[in-house]
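Subgroup meeting minutes
Present: P.N., E.W., G.H.
Scribe: E.W.

1. P.N. recapped why we're keeping a running log of single-chain structure predictions: easier to compare across weeks, and new members can see raw inputs and outputs side by side.
2. G.H. added today's entry (163 aa).
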Amino acid sequence: MTTVKLFIIFISLLLICTLAYSHNNNLGLYEIVEVFDGDTIAVNMAGKIEKVRLIGVDTPETKDPRKPVQCYGPEASLYSHAILDHAKIKLISDPLSTNRDRYDRLLRYVYLKDGTLYNQKLLESGNARAYTGFPFSKSDLFIKTAKISEQNQVGLWGSCKTA
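Output recorded in log:
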């Protein structure tokens, strides 16, 4: 084979590999179709819309008709909307948690496309409290992260009297 033919074959293979990688890089990612509040979203899973409750975090309420809007609720909701609206995310279950909660929502960790654990990001930014009412494998990490935010008076910790 001539050098030109080998070069064309090499470039063709390189192009095929690049296209395959970029296609596979989106495997396992789900598009968020709705952000309800800071800790509940809806995603499109192969044409089926599923509600997802983020494991281990609790943001102040903004949507519960039985409760008034809580301190820092609007800010936490805006924070989640800014980051999550129409984002593509990875959902990971927890081996210590159930698959669904009593409202039939999937219970998941949410990873952003860049690999950031969004559940923890909510705690770091002071937009959520650690929710430890049920066992989950990252509870120690989440408690520690929330404590640091509280000590630094970040987000709700610096804005609400009884955070």
